[in-house]
Amino acid sequence: MPTLHPAGGTSRARVAALAAAAGLLCAGGFAGLAPRQGTASSHREAPLISGQPQYDNTDVYAFVSPDKPDTTTLIANFIPFQDPAGGPNFSKFARDARYDLNVDNDGDSLPDLTYRFRFHDRLKNANTFLYNTGPVTSLDDPDLNFTQTYDLTLVRRVGGQVRSTHTLAGNAPVAPSNVGKASMPDYARLRAQAVRPLGDGTTSFAGQADDPFFLDLRVFDLLYGANLKEVGNDTLSGYNVNTVALQIPTRHLVTGHDPVIGVNSTVSRLSASGAYAQVSRLGSPLVNEVVVPRGKKDAFNASTPWQDAQFAGFVTDPELPKLIEKIYKIPAPPGPRKDLVQAFLTGVPGLNQPAHVRPAELLRLNTSVRPAAKPDRLGVLGGDKAGFPNGRRLTDDVVDIELQAVEGELLGKKNDLGDAVNANDAGFGTSFPYVAQPHSGSDVRGARKPGTKAAGTAGRGDGGKVNFLNAGATESTSGGEDGTISLAPVAAAAGAGAFLLTGGLLWLRRRRPSAGRHES
């Protein structure tokens, strides 16, 4: 396992980077390893939302744009497990919902900026069952029978109270579902037409895309079959999602001299009373999935980061390592996991902690960290401070990162746990919106050419078989002679975590927002 090499080599930077990996990686979700109803990063993660896919956040990403490092890219995905051939009513954004990307830029856990998408349906001919009545060559092609548009509004708040709203886009086109090669012979051209500059340096996109999350979901069969064999298949291969994405000048997102922002996505649904109710929430991957117990999952989806003290106990006493110990006899690191608390709730000093922070679960990104020339799929754990848990890039292997961390990699307990799926099934773009093109309805989902292997199933370099215990191994390791990582950073993180447990969390529970702070 590569060790971290923080800038300047100072002990303080090393502590910060290691604590980041140990804290937010583990507490932030643990890669879906509990036999719950959920299946991937917030794919059907709670009982109520599992029956409402149009409103279901699947993943959130936040990263400094690699080709435009003065901008930050925010991506939120919805509607999991879309079969590309699932017509004639292909998956669409809901008309009765508000899809929000929220940014906290002062650390108080309340959104200061909300980028709000509202969608509208357009049907040209109600007397046909077809989504399109001929080959579609442009977004305004008369043969494209069903279309969606969206309005994008920027809501600014102070202390939770709305201070202003500003329309950034009206009736902007949504990229259609990729019906098939006969219907859309040049789908890439159609999607390019849906990428819209907004005039203030911001660029927006909404439409269908390949599901960028990669992992083997047979974890739910008693943690990869209970016999180390059920790894190496990208279960989400061939499925699509609906995506909203923004590329925003970073100067518009940060405040003062603090470069750290907290990001999450929420979906609110219009009720019969005419009011909107939040039904889905997602920040760091896999939190609701495997940290929050089933009886609290719906409450988590309806809650705000301001209320996150109620879930703190599930972080300090995580369920996942106990399940691994029960099935694979790997001893779980002893609790309480005080080393996880600081990074999970506050971000880490020197990496991604805001200057004035209130503990809350958000995907925290230090926008001043430059994109890596050669990104490491293990992010901070692999020595790449531009990766997860400092935000989340499309290529970050959050499953392997979190598996290894939860089993004590940063406590000196070296391991190579992983699911043997190390990359997405489709290549990502090099420019905005970066997500891969959606799979075509004319393709057979999951089909492979004769002789090919599932993603991530290549044999190890020594010829050994790939299994759950070694699937996350990297090609080379560095650090101490025994490959382990020093315990000193963990001791420092534990001390900070103890402070939060004994003081910070009590303060969090006692404070209550004013009435206006829940205004949406």
UniProtKB/TrEMBL annotation:
Entry keywords, A to Z: Membrane, Signal, Transmembrane, Transmembrane helix
Pfam entry (one): DUF4331
Residue intervals passing through the bilayer: 487-508
Signal sequence residues: 1-31
Domain of life: Bacteria
Coiled coil location: none
Region ranges (Disordered): 439-480
Protein name in UniProt: DUF4331 domain-containing protein
Organism: Actinomadura luteofluorescens
